[in-house]
Amino acid sequence: MATLSNPLLTPTTSGTATPTIERKPSGSYGAPSRNPVSLRLYKVLSTNFEDESTKQALRTLSDLYSTSPSKGNDYSAYALNNDIEEEVTGHEQTFSTDSSIAQPSLPNLTESLPGEVASRARKNLRRDMENQLAEGSRRFLAALSEVDSRLGELQTHVAVMRASCDEAETQLALTNESSKMLLERAGHLRDERQEVEDKKSIINLFLSRFTLNAAEVEALTSRDVSVGPRFFEAMDRTEKIREDCRVLMAGEDGSTKAGLEIMASTASNLEQGYEKILRYCSNEFRQIGRESQIEVGLILQEAVVRLRKRPELLNEAFTSLSESRQATLMSSFLAALTRGGPSGYPRPIELHAHDPMRYVGDMLAWVHQAIAAEREFLESLFGMKSDMRMVGSIRKFEKGEEEEWVRDLMDSAVGKLCVPLKVRVQQTIRSQESSIVSYKIANLLQFYLITMYRTIGENALLCKTLKEITDMSYKVFYESIEMHSQLLERAPLDPDNPSLTPPAVVLDHVHILREIMVVYQSSLAGDEHEDDITAGFNQVLDIMVDPVVTLCIAIGEQKQKVRPRWDGGVYVINCLCYLQGVLSTFDFTVKKREQIQTTIDYRVTQLTQDHTINITRDAGLLQVLETIEKNENKEPLSRVPATQTASLQRSLRQFSLWLSGIEVVHSPRLAQLAVQKLHTKIHQDALVRLSKAYRTICDEVKKPENKYEAASTLLGSERPFGQMHLLQQIFGFDESDDEESESSDDDSSSDE
Amino acid sequence: MVLNNFEADATELLETYDFLMKFIVIGEAGTGKSCLLHHFTHNSFKDHSQHTIGVEFSSRTVKLGEKRIKLQLWDTAGQERFRSVTRSYYRGAAGAILVYDITSRDSFANLSRWLADARALASPNLVVVLVGNKSDREEDREVEWADASRWAAENDVHFLEASSLSGENVEAPFLLAARAILLSIESGTLDPEKAGSGVSYGDRALRRVNSSSRLSFGSFTASRRKGSVKLKVKKWIPGSKCC
């Protein structure tokens, strides 16, 4: 539009042309206004131009003719003189303002003559207007043509644009077409990606579930992570994974590659873990082993529990444990033996080596206590609930794996002690001179052997050693008592000793026996069976008692030969009774006592017979009696020299004298018997036999075939006058005794 | 499952201890040594018990203040015939529970012999607690409390009466002895480091601390533990007749 308006305002031609065009209409107006027109003029003048549109029109008009403002003032001064001029001035003013841009074209007109413009304007108003209009139209045209050409141009542009738009559209369509595939593909890809993501998360889950993370692997394999909760958690995880994996592989798909790989890798991790536990355990064990008092940490306990799944590793760990325990126990045992406690208190055990019981007892007690501590340690190691049993009381050997381990470990830990213990005990046993002490030691060993059987089982090495040394100690003891017995046999006969009491050598021997029996008695726990008790001591009795019996009998016989007046029978009975008396205070000697009693009984019978013969002889009836018994020819006794009336009477007188003597109630020979009861019994028995003999004599005398004259006178001449009851009164027999004597009569007759 | 218990029940599960002490239980036959011990370890009366044969062993962990103490208890036979065997077990005992029967004057009369034996054979710092057992049988009493108390004072041993039937004061003698030993450890007269003292450190960590610097351990316990031990002591034998 700027371009279009420009031509209108350009002052080149139009500036000069405008006044000329305007002069014509004003000239033509001016001519008729003088007269007829004056009316009209007045009319016009009378008309009111005060309305706004008129004013506007006038102003526009005046602008058309206006010049510069200073010249405008001149025009107005001039116009004031004329009535009409006011109108023109107004026109010019409006015009000048309107064409102020066209100023350069007007000065020429205005400068030359003031008011000329107005007049010319009055003349040429119409033409000017028309020119103006034409000019304006031309300018419009020009401008429009310009617009037109531009529009044309624009149209071309638009056409081009459109063409390219079309092209673009086609291309768009094409692109669209082709991008559809892309989109499709992208969609597929997206789906795929989603799928892959899903798979990934599944795999991640799978992996996190079926593989160990770095920390766990580190815990399992690295040496930097110590065995502890974290490690155990990792172990648990590994185990869990393997378990799950096994479940998976057991499914219908069978074993998958992944499964196998997982199994393989976890297996290796697990093995490393176990290796680590092994290292840890071995290390701990080695450390624990060095301490005398031991306790088990929770981690170690757990480690052992875990290692149980790998028995071969566990065994390896146990090996190091038992090795170190062996060494420790050994050194503390040796320390207790030789060094004792701190500053020598408690005293070293070996200090009491001179007191064999204490020495051996202390050693065994030490071992026993070490076992108790060891047992507690092992129980806590395996987390076994203690059965609250007291050590020493009978243990039931349960069939548990732990129980077995405990036993094995105990066995090996304590087993090393066997050698020093054995050496010392054996030395002690061998150096004993007293068989009593030997026996005490043997019993002590036996006691501990039983205690150990109950505590650590019969198959333990220590028990075997104990058994060995117990056996040996018994052997030594038996040897020593056998030697005693042999010494007994070699004891010199002492023919000049008139004593009928047991000889000193027997007394000593029996004294030892008594001591040994006391020891045995005290070794009994009180819950043994009676037969066992008896059996347990038989060997000792056989060894110690039998030679005494043999010896006494032998001495009796030998000495009798050397000294006929010495009373061997009484001596033997005295010895045996003494022995029997000693044995009888101990219940477990019952069998041996029975044996001895038989011997005594036999000896007593012998003595009784001997004594009967003696007193019969003393009483003077022996010869008569023998003659009666020997009289087999049935020759009348009164014809036999020994029983002739005179000699018979002599015999009867002697009997009568004897009856009033002291020997009837007291036999000086039997007084030598240590046991008063035996004395009485033998004497009584002898008297019974004597009375029986007297009766035989009476009966024989009374028999008519023996042809004694005045038989009753013969018998009645001396006490007891042939009356048995009188004799029995003298002997102090009761009626009942009489019957007994008769029955014993029968016995003796049957014996004969 | 084991792991779950791992930390939570650690103290319950494991019998960790600060000290291990060896005790012997001695006295005439039939005074109830085994029953007393049984009640202490099993918390129940042992009926129809027979004479102990030789020596029996049991153990229990007790808590004294903040210390856990494991007691190794050797129950000995009172019968004369086992004397030679049981004497070997006195060796290195830190504490002795000397038991008599309040209903048997004889069991009281022989105490001196037992005490002399124990003093001669056990650890030099042996702590002895005299226990008059069967205190539930008041009607058969033959030994007056005052007599026993006087004897205990004269012989410098602790004394109390207990009943292994009713369980009265059954724990007290053991705790009393343990406490006395603990005090002598802290005062320095007893050194658990030395073998034969009848006492040894339990917890290995503690031992390690100790072996590296004994002084620091001493002051550490003296300042921190001593008071608490004393405090607890009053709590655990309420109404006990100990002097």
UniProtKB/TrEMBL annotation, chain A:
Acts as component of the peripheral membrane COG complex that is involved in intra-Golgi protein trafficking. COG is located at the cis-Golgi, and regulates tethering of retrograde intra-Golgi vesicles and possibly a number of other membrane trafficking events. Acts as a component of the peripheral membrane COG complex that is involved in intra-Golgi protein trafficking. COG is located at the cis-Golgi, and regulates tethering of retrograde intra-Golgi vesicles and possibly a number of other membrane trafficking events. Residues 257-715 form the Conserved Oligomeric Golgi complex subunit 6 C-terminal domain. It is found in: Golgi apparatus membrane. One of its GO terms (biological process) is intra-Golgi vesicle-mediated transport. It holds the Pfam family COG6_C. InterPro entries: COG6, COG6_C, COG6_N. Residues 734-752 have a biased composition (Acidic residues). Keywords: Golgi apparatus, Membrane, Protein transport, Transport. It comes from Crepidotus variabilis. This is Conserved oligomeric Golgi complex subunit 6. Belongs to the COG6 family. Residues 119-222 form the Conserved oligomeric complex COG6 N-terminal domain. It is a peripheral membrane protein. The lineage of its organism: Eukaryota, Fungi, Dikarya, Basidiomycota, Agaricomycotina. It comes from the Eukaryota. Component of the conserved oligomeric Golgi complex. The keyword Membrane applies. The keyword Membrane applies. GO terms for cellular component: Golgi membrane; Golgi transport complex. Residues 1-35, 732-752 are annotated as: Disordered. Residues 1-20 have a biased composition (Low complexity).
TrEMBL record, chain B:
It is found in: Membrane. PROSITE patterns: RAB, RAS. Keywords: Hydrolase, Membrane, Nucleotide-binding. The keyword tRNA processing does not apply. SMART domains: RAB (SM00175), RAN (SM00176), RAS (SM00173), RHO (SM00174). SUPFAM superfamilies: P-loop containing nucleoside triphosphate hydrolases (SSF52540). GO terms for molecular function: GTP binding; GTPase activity. One of its GO terms (cellular component) is membrane. Its main location: membrane. Pfam families: Ras. Belongs to the small GTPase superfamily. Rab family. This is P-loop containing nucleoside triphosphate hydrolase protein. The lineage of its organism: Eukaryota, Fungi, Dikarya, Basidiomycota, Agaricomycotina.
